[in-house]
Design goal:
91 residues; 5 helices; Transposase
Length: 91
């Protein structure tokens, strides 16, 4: 019997990568903590480091840890608010 393949959102991958990048912990430690394969997390970390480097070269400032946390909180909050209420609030 085969297992169903898990999928992860982009936000989850970025957050997991920053657990390694920002904390200085090893990929193995974080992978064990969140329950993913080390190779998979290693790819996410490499992708995020490339993205950060590309942003730096183009003159863009990547989000800080606090900004990423706030963005995640707002994204979770937005779908919970009914669309009609959001439209009424915008007026």
């Amino acid at each position: 019997m085969s297992r169903k393949r898990r999928s992860f959102t982009t936000e989850y991958k970025v957050d997991a990568a920053h657990r390694v990048i920002d904390s200085g912990r090893t990929i193995a430690e974080v992978a064990a903590e969140i329950g993913v394969n080390e190779g998979l997390l290693g790819r996410w970390v490499a992708d995020e480091r490339r993205r950060l480097e590309a942003a730096k070269t183009s003159g863009d400032q990547p989000l800080t840890a606090a900004e990423r946390t706030e963005l995640a909180r707002l994204r979770k909050q937005a779908p919970a608010q009914p669309v009609a209420q959001r439209v009424a609030d915008d007026r």
